[in-house]
Amino acid sequence: MKQIDVYRHKKILVLGLAKSGVTAAALLHKLGAFVTVNDKKPLSENPEAQGLLEQGIKVICGDHPIELLDEGFELIVKNPGIPYNNPMIAGAIEKGIPVITEVELAYQISDAPFIAITGTNGKTTTTTLIFEMLNQGNKQPLIAGNIGTVASGVAQKATKENTIVIELSSFQLMGIDTFKPRIAIITNLYDAHLDYHGTREEYMKAKSNITKKQTELEYLIINADQEETLEIARNSRAKIIPFSTKKHLSEGAFISNGWICFNDEKVMEIEKIALPGVHNLENILSAMVAAKLSGVENSAIQEVLQTFTGVKHRLQYVTEVNGRKFYNDSKATNSLAAINALAAFDAPIILLAGGLDRGNEFDELLPYLKNVKALVTFGQTAPKIERVGSEAGIKTIKRVDNVDKAVPEAYRHSEPGDIILLSPACASWDQYKTFEVRGDIFIEAVHKLK
After folding, report:
1. pTM for the full model?
2. Which residues are annotated as a binding site?
3. C-alpha to C-alpha distance for 309 and 287, rounded to whole angstroms
4. Which Pfam families has this protein been placed in (predicted)?
């Protein structure tokens, strides 16, 4: 870890705890800052805040008092989930107080270079693939970010021999300043999180921050099949490496005659890849480029792709019960992700879908439901998804209270050879705290069938 003095004796407010806030507060305290932590959860119910209090850090819990901004803070480190229209954040910006996320801290203290991955879909799978490829190639990678490991915690342990492979959301990317990854990847871009960003333009702008500080010495890997990512590339100073699943490229990664290729080199036959789904070829191509740029040999890349079957909750194979195969794709929190899952299978599908209503009508699902023989819905969006299912000609449509009840209902309408797929096309927050909780409940319900 770099010993930096930039925060020594600075008054810093850490707004919002969770894992990232706790780690950031403790790190800043160690770097000599005068840290105040503010979290909405009452102190009596907040073991994280109590732990920071024991370290000598000032803690204010229970609400976000706007008058805190009058205490002369020189920097705010905010939890990425707190939107910029929050009164505390808006007030800080109005006063000219810089606002960052802990990813910026991680970059400033890290001895290791970063490979940073963002996009609407495929981030976690791509991040995990890169980590596995670098690990197989003996490159000593560390994994961090939105995938579940706090970046500033990982950065404290990293050395120059490591590479930090970090998944970044648009929320995190809005709060960076000097962050400059050696390799940046944008998997794809579609409308998402408009409830947070307000407009499509603001969402795209946040994603483009990943390459904002890059120079011609760094790399930006982008999806050449999308105008949105190409537009970001046109405004980047980094060396651009494109990938495409639809066309042959003179430079970059692409598909040719059943092979994944890099520049003029065949790397691996697609039929030998273990990870299902056409959409995963995008993730594989971008991960392969990052691995090749990091000096990983083809043999290590091939070894990973022959054995890697996916990340939990992302088109995850669960088990087979009496000839029915169950897949957990709880991370499919939008229609595009559900479409990718539906396109991954040739066998008849019983689809489990529904969740938080964000105003989508789901008409984009229509062309992809032809292989769905039965539909089981739940959550706020159940009526909307049922309407689309009826228009697609699905004869068996059943509504249940929750995922736990959806699994046996789906099983009742299945037969050997069928795929039973949880791919909700919606966020989980109407019924479940996270998509992980929803996926775990699905897995548990599947195992009850045995």
Report:
1. 0.80
2. 119-125
3. 15
4. Mur_ligase_C, Mur_ligase_M, MurD-like_N
